[in-house]
Amino acid sequence: MLINCPRCGFQQPKDKYCAQCGVDMESFKPATPPAWKRFFGNPLIQLSLVVVVAGGVGITLYKKGQQNLERRVSYLKSTVQINSAGGPVDVPPPEDTANFAQQETQEATQSSEAADGTIDAYKVEPTPAAVTAVAAPAAPEQTDRTGRAVAKAGAHLIVYYTEVSRGRLNAIFGASRSTGQFMNFNEYSAGILPDFEKNVMNRPDIKILHKEDRPLTASRTLQWSYTLKDRRNPAIEIGLTTFFELNDFDNNNLRGNLEIQRNWREPAPGGGFELQRKSFPAIFEIGGETGFFMSGVMPPMSNMGPEEDQLMSFDIYKILRSPQFRSGESDFVIFVEFEKGN
Domain spans of the chain? Predict the structure, then answer.
């Protein structure tokens, strides 16, 4: 029978002494390794160190991604397309209404000329019978050097204005956090949503109040509003405006900026209510099975008194009369989906 020397490892037939180093193999006891060698030589310790290092790298990358996303959103907040400053709206005196309206028209024209692309503006006004959308004339479709349309034919941007139960919204937050592209601000939250069809469509705890389906053309900017003219001053409009700036889109992905602007009567520091303008910007990249969402942009009350009945002409504001919404059991959520072209 062959044995190995416990000292030098030499293999030989069984004997008392090693034929190579001469040690008494029966009485030889190897020296105990240092404690640090025994500690780091333990397979469980080695596995734990690998897990800790991998976790640290993952957390570092996640934090860097979040910081980068926050910087981009902060930049977007400082350069919002509709309005870069929140706070009370300067309401002109009634006798200056015409001048104020003319000034707004001039500013809108200058903004349109400065924008990269053509603005497709959709202004929605309530009527006694129904709500209608009026589209501004679109510029001729731009083409590239080969004469092909810049935008992919058949591509659509679909926006859902919904009421979502609190439990479902928490699940949406969790799903968005798993992508590493979830942003939670003081007043609102936004993020990428995986498995859009599974998480949003045909769910009993998500009520679709209104749906906007806009074809994507060569224009890189889309805008529409759900607003009422202020009874006290028709130059001021109350409600929500949706603004999209599309940076890039192809067959599979759509990248851009979303901004919701809110003109609303809100409690004033000295009591009563004052008209305030706030902007809620976000960035997104969606396509395939992913979508985008934004929540927290609708106040729990209109603060409009008898005029609230006129606001109900718009489907999206019917949530203001939902008992679940008023009690905080549900929230107003905007979902965005990209339907690729043929």
Answer: 79-339
